[in-house]
């Protein structure tokens, strides 16, 4: 029967082959009719095809229900189950159901069993449920270890430290195996909160920071291996929370030198680690690394060592090296901030002549921001202008006008004059560049305010100014403003620059308002005559130059 069926199939195949050969011969004999449709022109190679934006389909109600039940519900359940287990242990301890040793041991065993159950669920293709169970087991196990040390004193903090690292190592291995960013976030939370509770009565900052450095080194390695870009900022935030806790502890209490050293070293390791992670993840803006650099400076400020300025200068060099290695130009900003912090931490007496030399160093940093090409930050000119405005405010806050204190602020004013001259020179050289085009008026306003304040302080630092009374001081300032306005207009005429001329005219208008609203009320007759006639002469001279230059 089978042989007969096989012979029939072979005959059918032969007939089909013959039929196919006949069809091919007929198609070859009939010529293909010419098409009346013209072929499209070949597009040139340089024409780029526009990318069509892919519209993601909206989730249906069933998909939202599935997402809530299979993804978020296990995560929420993990947190609530862990909290419930902690409450159960607390109630059991108060009711006296089980002995302390049984409580701690059973908690640890139950936590590890729940972690194993999570692994089993993950193997059964229940990914989110397995991750939630592993997170629950991790929290329960670490809570039991915390209770054994803090509540019952079964073992010292150092042993609790190593036992917690073992549990976290197991969680880390499962995290890499499951490739779960959610588990990474949960482990980050427990890594900070449990040592914080464990060491809250008498903080052991050294042990706490060693634990944090080891834990987050492992977590950052996991971030790189899992490419967990979204989990990275959260883990870094937990590390910064630990550093903040340590900074507060060191600042409000008298701590051993070991705690201070461990704080500075932990902050520096956090900075280098976040910079490395940002490079491996190819992040365009590595915010955690920049914030870690700020924590390094905060830790140096907290420890109050006499040689902090030297360490901050070394850290500035480290930041510049990191910027070159990671190709992250914003890391140069961390170095610039470290330089400013170095100047601020110089060991000089307040309100002394040496303290005024800080202004010259600040001015040199500002000039470097404007003119030094290496180690630049994006928008560095604008950052320099913002720092310049802060520098002006600081100088005004430090400046005292009391004529009887016998103190000169000439060095500080010289530093401000140096920075102002640098800004004016920058605008003269680069006023035609595209960077200033959109906000040129704002730049000129900042420069004009800086020149006006600097010029006023220079006049007030003249040798004879301190010996004048209030009326003569006002007269001196009015005359100085009129002369400066004349000089600015003259420079504008020589350089054929409208900015200089308009600045002079604006200053002349301010001088006129000062004469009418302020000087007119209390100057003597001879002073009024002298100042007002001088103003009129300068105004006529400036106007004469405009008449001379106008088209015939």
UniProtKB/TrEMBL annotation:
InterPro entries: DUF2339_TM. The chain crosses the membrane at residues 67-91, 97-117, 129-152, 158-175, 182-199, 205-224, 231-251, 257-278, 290-323, 356-372, 379-397, 409-428, 440-462, 474-492, 504-523, 529-547. Keywords: Membrane, Transmembrane, Transmembrane helix. This is DUF2339 domain-containing protein. It comes from Exiguobacterium antarcticum.
């Amino acid at each position: 029967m089978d042989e007969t069926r096989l012979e029939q199939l072979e005959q059918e195949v032969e007939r089909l082959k013959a039929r196919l050969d006949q069809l091919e011969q007929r198609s070859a004999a009939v010529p293909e009719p010419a098409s009346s449709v013209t072929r499209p022109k070949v597009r040139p190679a340089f024409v780029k095809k526009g990318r069509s934006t892919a519209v993601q389909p909206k989730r249906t109600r069933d998909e939202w229900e599935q997402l809530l039940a299979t993804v978020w519900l296990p995560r929420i359940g993990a947190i609530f189950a862990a909290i419930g287990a902690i409450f159960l242990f607390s109630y059991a301890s108060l009711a006296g159901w089980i002995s302390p040793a049984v409580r701690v041991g059973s908690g640890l065993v139950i936590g590890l069993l729940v972690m194993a159950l999570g692994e089993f669920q993950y193997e059964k293709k229940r990914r989110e449920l397995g991750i939630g169970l592993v997170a629950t087991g991790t929290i329960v196990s670490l809570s039991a270890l915390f209770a054994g040390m803090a509540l019952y004193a079964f073992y010292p903090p150092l042993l609790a430290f190593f036992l917690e690292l073992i549990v976290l190592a197991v969680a880390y291995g499962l995290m890499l195996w499951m490739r779960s960013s959610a588990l990474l976030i949960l482990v980050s939370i427990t890594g900070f909160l449990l040592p914080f509770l464990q060491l809250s009565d008498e903080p052991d900052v050294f042990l706490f920071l060693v634990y944090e450095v080891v834990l987050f080194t492992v977590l950052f390695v996991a971030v790189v291996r899992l490419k967990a870009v979204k989990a990275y900022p959260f883990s870094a935030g937990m590390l910064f929370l630990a550093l903040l806790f340590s900074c507060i502890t060191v600042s409000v209490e008298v701590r051993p030198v070991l705690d201070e050293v461990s704080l500075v070293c932990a902050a520096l390791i956090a900075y280098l680690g976040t910079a490395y992670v940002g490079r491996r993840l190819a992040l365009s803006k590595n915010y955690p690394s920049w914030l870690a650099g700020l924590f390094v400076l905060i830790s140096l400020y907290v420890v109050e060592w006499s040689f902090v300025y030297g360490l901050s200068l070394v850290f500035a060099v480290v930041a510049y090296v990191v910027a070159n290695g990671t190709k992250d130009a914003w890391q140069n900003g961390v170095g610039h901030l470290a330089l400013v912090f170095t100047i601020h931490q110089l060991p000089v007496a307040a309100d002394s002549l040496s303290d005024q030399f800080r202004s010259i160093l600040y001015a040199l940093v500002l000039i470097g921001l404007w003119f030094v090409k290496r180690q630049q930050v994006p928008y560095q000119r604008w950052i320099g202008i913002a720092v310049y405005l802060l520098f002006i405010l600081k100088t005004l806050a430090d400046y005292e006008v009391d004529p009887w204190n016998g103190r000169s602020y000439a060095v500080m004013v010289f530093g401000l004059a140096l920075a102002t001259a640098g800004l004016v020179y920058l605008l003269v050289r680069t006023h035609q560049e595209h960077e200033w085009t959109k906000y040129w008026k704002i730049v000129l306003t900042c420069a004009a305010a800086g020149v006006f304040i600097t010029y006023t302080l220079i006049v007030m630092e003249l040798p004879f100014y301190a010996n004048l009374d209030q009326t003569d001081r006002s007269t001196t300032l009015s005359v100085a403003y009129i002369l400066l306005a004349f000089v600015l207009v003259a420079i504008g005429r020589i350089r054929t620059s409208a900015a200089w001329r308009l600045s002079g005219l604006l200053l002349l208008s301010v001088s006129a308002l000062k004469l009418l609203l302020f000087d007119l009320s209390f100057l003597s007759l001879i002073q009024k005559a002298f100042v007002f006639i001088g103003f009129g002469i300068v105004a006529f001279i400036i106007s004469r130059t405009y008449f001379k230059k106008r088209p015939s």
